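Quick one, tokens below:
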């Protein structure tokens, strides 16, 4: 019984390890970007750009995200930033 439990725990640990190490796929990310859910897409897009540097549209969307963030901020009210 103890051996069976240990095998289950080992299997679950392997599953967690593989799911964390998965790469971000642009085709999954583009769905968030097309829906204009920029706040949800930003961390995934940053991770994608660290892994892949040859996708021009990913950089374009990162610029759009930064533009949307800057439009929300009022420069005169947030002088510290």
């Amino acid at each position: 019984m103890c051996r069976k439990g240990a095998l289950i725990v080992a299997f679950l640990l392997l599953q967690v390890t593989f799911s964390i190490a998965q790469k971000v796929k642009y085709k999954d990310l583009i769905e968030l970007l097309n829906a204009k859910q920029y706040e949800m897409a930003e961390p995934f897009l940053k991770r994608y750009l660290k892994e892949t540097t040859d996708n021009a549209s990913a950089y374009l969307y990162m610029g759009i995200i930064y533009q949307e963030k800057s439009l929300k901020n009022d420069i005169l009210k947030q002088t510290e930033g």
